[in-house]
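queue> pop job 88
queue> type: inverse folding (structure -> sequence)
queue> payload:
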């Protein structure tokens, strides 16, 4: 995520120095906000309105904490939010054939979490779910169900993890031009849980 941000905004370190480390420096202009959160089709006037709701000061500890340990970060692994720890809070007892307990939604114009990051996250959850003994050992966790390009959505359900890719949407899928499509994909997932 941090590398993707730096590719999006190579002037970030210098601007942050000029802004004396102000926490909103990375999001100080409508162009930076659009690039970070929204698709290219999102209206500029809506971005200015969105910026009015952004806090003037925000803790930078959450993006720093996303690094986890430096060694794990270098390997592309997050140690701060491990899938097995998160899954302890998810009810996974129903049959494998009944549902996907995990859903990952990604806007394809998201500059922070690209498809490579999403693929790693989905793999981590699939591996963690495979290790859980709370579901039927006879069920096939390797079955794949794919719905491709339905209303700007590409969905893959494999290993009890659903990955939804939204075409034409940025990081804020709930606020971007594909809001209705994202809500429909989320509702479809919620209904099968």
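queue> result:
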């Amino acid at each position: 995520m941090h590398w993707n941000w730096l590719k999006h905004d190579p002037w970030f370190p210098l601007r942050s120095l000029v802004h004396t480390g102000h926490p909103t420096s990375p999001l100080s202009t409508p162009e930076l906000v659009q690039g970070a959160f929204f698709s290219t089709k999102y209206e500029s006037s809506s971005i200015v309105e969105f910026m009015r709701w952004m806090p003037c000061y925000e803790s930078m500890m959450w993006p720093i904490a996303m690094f986890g340990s430096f060694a794990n970060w270098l390997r592309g692994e997050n140690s701060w939010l491990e899938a097995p720890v998160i899954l302890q809070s998810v009810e996974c007892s129903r049959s494998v054939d009944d549902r996907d307990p995990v859903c990952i939604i990604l806007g394809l114009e998201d500059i922070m979490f690209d498809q490579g990051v999403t693929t790693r996250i989905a793999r981590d959850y699939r591996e963690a779910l495979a290790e859980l003994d709370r579901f039927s050992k006879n069920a096939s966790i390797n079955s794949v169900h794919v719905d491709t390009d339905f209303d700007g959505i590409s969905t893959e359900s494999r290993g009890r993890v659903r990955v939804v890719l939204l075409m034409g949407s940025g990081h804020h899928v709930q606020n971007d031009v594909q809001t209705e499509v994202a809500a429909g994909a989320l509702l479809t997932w919620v209904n099968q849980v």
